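SAMPLE LOG
Freezer: B-3
Tube label: C17
Construct: single chain, 164 aa
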Amino acid sequence: MRPFCTGDIEALNRQCGNGWRKVFNVYAKLVFAWRSADPVLDACLPGAGCASWQVYRDTVLLQKDSQTALLFNPPLPQQDLPNYGNGCADNAITGTIHNAYHIIMGRTYAKSLVQTAGLNLTWHGEEFAIDQIARTVVCPYFDYRQLSNIKIIRLVELLKSLNQ
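STRUCTURE (predicted):
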């Protein structure tokens, strides 16, 4: 994985068009809404001083130590993630984070992973699914039309349920 630097998202949007802009905007809106709904998460993630999702997108999202990533491979639910000192590790000795969240964009892709990634999905309607053990949630693709603000709130609720 290679983290973005400040300005990379803007440059990618300029060079690659509206499709990536939608993905980054929806991702930033999701994290911003989730932080607002979950004080523990808000305390764990960098960017608490961001006044808007736009500022968060431009200064924190996908950058080093942001604890966010955009992967193009199946999730590895059991994989420990390194803790670089700014997150909420639950193991101070090893410095690993055992509470990573995985979000799979797209129902069709998620269904293809049931066999290969060993996911045990419980569907909540047509668009959302959850695997409590793998800490994985399936949602519509990160696009304004597919993942509206109302659906972002539903996604936040499902992500928060992984901690219950």
